[in-house]
## 1
Amino acid sequence: MALVYKICPRDLWRNAEALGRFTGAPVDHADGFIHFSTADQVVETAARHFAGQDDLLLVAVEGDDLGPALRFEPSRGGALFPHLYGDLPLSAVRSVTALPLDPEGRHVFPAEIVPA
């Protein structure tokens, strides 16, 4: 399995680091699972759900480390999105990268997500 990605406000992620695990954002709690995106989905996720929001982080997680708690389920337009049923252990996190805004207010992703 490949990496999956979570877009997270910096303060919420800092709380997770202090706690030793990520328990989810308010939308995750409401839906009963932690929302993730694949590399092919994360840019659209940012545009749809985080438009213009600053001080976000892109958290890359090794999907294999999450075991059967990670399920790919139909969501937007029938596409399969990764959902984690349980807390995210920080041991599964491969990188945490700032997700700044460009002058037009769009998020700037690392090259491995959007090749130059």
## 2
Amino acid sequence: MKKIIQTEHAPAPIGPYNQAVLAGNTLYVSGQIALDPATGELVQGSIEAETEQVLKNLKAVLEAAGAGFPNVVKTSIFVKDMGQFGRINAVYGQYFDPEWAPARETVEVANLPKYVNVEISAIAVVG
């Protein structure tokens, strides 16, 4: 059985998918981009600001499912320019303690939705 997770504190999906799906005790969080859920506008200006908004959106979806960053077992980071990875990683490291940090992969891609620079998805264990 699966349960759809939805929150107004993260951007609404921009396609035929949900913010997250809880299947048993495994939570699959769709890729989050730097959309501000209050305004619907993209957060721009720096890769740090963009990454910060991505992680705030991810946090909101996790919390809607009764989870948090310590529950995350895997993330996938998609970046438009691997040259910015160090700056993205510095912000990411503020959300994930090395003691319980998840497994992850980082992949450079040609493009992302709305032409953003970074997108992060996650898998978490809830309960």
